[in-house]
Amino acid sequence: MRYVSTRGATPPMPFQDAVLTGLAPDGGLLVPQTLPDFRGRLAAWRDLSFVELAVAVLQAFADDMPRETLERIAAEAYATFDHPEVTPLVEVGPLHVLELFHGPTLAFKDIALQLLGRLFEHVTAARGERLNVLCATSGDTGSAAIAGVKGRANMGIFVLYPDGRTSPLQALQMTTVADANVHCLAIDGSFDDCQRIVKAIFNDLDFKARHCLGAANSVNWARVLAQAVYYIHAALRFDAPVSFSVPTGNFGNILAGYLARRMGAPIDKLVLGTNANDILARFFHTGEYRLGTVQRTISPSMDIQVASNFERFVHYHLGGDAVALRTFMSTFADCGAAKLDGGAPADEGILAVAIDEAETKATMANLHSRHGYIADPHSAVGIAAAHRFPACRPVVCLAAAHPAKFPDTVDAAVGRAAARHPALDALVGKPQRKTRLAPDVAAVKDFIAAHAG
Ligand SMILES: *Cc1c(COP(=O)(O)O)cnc(C)c1O
């Protein structure tokens, strides 16, 4: 299996190179040249454990790695989860909730990043190279990436996050990690500023090569791939195609479901829920991708306007037409808006809605009072979105984070102190390490150059 760029100007590369490359050199995102068709294998896959299924899916994409290595990496990655099923499916009234937050940092990001950290370590060790992970985070990617990379040989990590705009606990999960190879950069700006800086640094190919930079954001293909596993695993628990409801910011999580369906997983509709940062919801209604201004909400991990993985959706929607994709992306870059020929993509089976704060809070309150279930505000956005499309049943709602990551919001919504987790309680009062920087590409480059090892 070879990987090519959505923008069509990067020579095909094998899986291990794609994992290290992150953003393609032509500025696009890497995608496999073809997607495998899993339909003939689904019956045999029904009985597999999460780890076994992860290996089977990975093998189709990582054909330059030995099976034993994939087995070891997957087993180790998911042994860090505190639930034997890794991603348990729980019934909450008429809904099925797929809990993706049983990993070390309590958000779904662990599913991909526990795997990715180990993939990085394997590939760099085999090549005798160093790798410095560079990523931007709206809150959860940073701690999950740090947990995947901390203490690993020949690796460092630089995480940019918007200072004061993550939840305080999310910040503590990053800044209390003591390993010397971890660098937390508190940027005086928004998540979009952080993401823009990271993109600019990755686009400086000399700098990227000189400091051995790699990506852990969902621009990394391996992340999307790891996430496709839980869609397939959950869909195979049902006898007929099932819909999924997904709280979305960067279009990463829902893209994994979209790809799982394209590869033949029995998935009906994908319901996309955004918060007030509704660029994706507007796009699926109008076909126009138009930048708004970032608003701060109670679901901060989705306070995103420019969804970095959206380009992969456009790639598939346009049938791989790199010329049309480049026109779309450059129009968006130049004008802050771009329109699809043919208007809203009605044939993609994606139903989108923006959920405001009042509805998000009411959803948390209702889940608690009617079903005794505590959802975090991001998961509540997805669950509220599922309620808007009652015809899509059965529906699996993805629970993106443990409620204890957002205790103030959750406790206020349910009316009692309900959101606690011992792993988070243990962080309070620990020493913190971070460096404050202006939202400036040169300042971040200087810091990396001085600390890349
Ligand atoms: C990352 C994250 C999201 C958004 O996921 P995308 O892949 O960016 O769509 C939503 N909720 C939580 C809790 C997250 O950590």
Explain this structure to me?
There is one protein chain. By secondary structure, the protein is an alpha/beta fold. It has a domain at 89-104 and 221-420: Rossmann fold. Helix content is 44%, strand content 16%. The protein has 19 helices and 16 strands. It has helices spanning 15-21, 42-45, 50-61, 67-79, 109-127, 140-149, 168-175, 191-203, 205-210, 221-235, 252-262, 279-286, 310-317, 322-335, 357-371, 377-388, 407-414, 422-425, 441-451, and strands at residues 2-5, 13-14, 30-32, 89-92, 95-99, 131-136, 155-162, 182-187, 213-215, 242-247, 267-274, 288-290, 337-339, 350-354, 395-399, 435-437. Strands 4-5-15-10-11-14 form a six-stranded mixed beta sheet. Strand 10, helix 11 (252-262) and strand 11 (267-274) form a beta-alpha-beta unit. Helix 5 (109-127) runs parallel beside helix 6 (140-149). The longest helix is centred in the N-terminal third of the chain and has 19 residues, at 109-127. The radius of gyration is 20 Å and the shape is globular. The mean pLDDT is 95. The chain binds pyridoxal-5'-phosphate. Pyridoxal-5'-phosphate binds next to helix 11.
